[in-house]
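Both lines are given unchanged directly below:

***
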Amino acid sequence: MSAGWNTIESDATAKVPDHQTDQDLMTSAYKISPVYGVIFLFKYPTGEKPSNVPKDGNFDFEAAENLFFAAQTIQNACGTQALLSVLLNKEGEVEIGPQLRDFKEFTGAFPSELRGEALSNSELIRDVHNSFARASPFIDETQRTATEDDDVYHFIAYTPINGMLYELDGLQAAPISHGACSFDEFPDKVIPVLQRRIERYPAHEIRFNLLAMVRDLRIRAREIGDQNWLYREEQKRNAWQWENSLRKHNFVGLVSEVLKGVVKGKLKEGDGAYERWVEDAVGKTKKRIEEKGKNGGVQAEEDMGS
């Protein structure tokens, strides 16, 4: 890992005390209410020319002074910034803690460009972000400008603020307003906005992801007395903790020793056992790559270039 902002996977398990993000939640908005905002992942059109007018909605430059909106100056952290764009605009509804509250107050009078710089220089936020990165010596953290041939993915936030539905994208000049929207109306009103964005892409493009930021679902399960739901949510958190603990460890040494032991065993078998084993592994790998290509599966990472 580098000393800067590490690339992390698109992961639907971001944690905020008493709140969470999760996938496939917009289909049951009543059950998971309240929905504080959504985070949308999509393939960024790197060859598209900048415009002074958004393709949907309207820039609200005045709103940028009355809500938390930061320009994106970090290449590998658009997902973290999208999460903060929702979280720091819900201070009265979500307990954000003293450290984030101090950060918000400190940057309150800044223009969006300086807020972005302040965010990029926050050791606290950077350390939390990097704690979700995989410990691997093979990850290239070199920053470069994306080209039209690169598959670049970007996270943005949608959330209701002061009676309006806003799109918060640090690569845009200002918050984008999508019209009047109350907190209760948000789950219904954000859907057509997302549909219009998806319709900009070819029909075969399916690489999208939607996360909803909601109250901790364990609280909701306890309120309605659903013990099965509560059990499933507890199991989710156990799995998240296990995955995050594994993510922080470098298993290259272990894999190397295991591989050396297997190779040694194959060589002892003789009669071309090692060569057949290698050929079989190569064939299976090629088959998996071909199947993945047919399915259009892409593991999106937070690699949006600023």
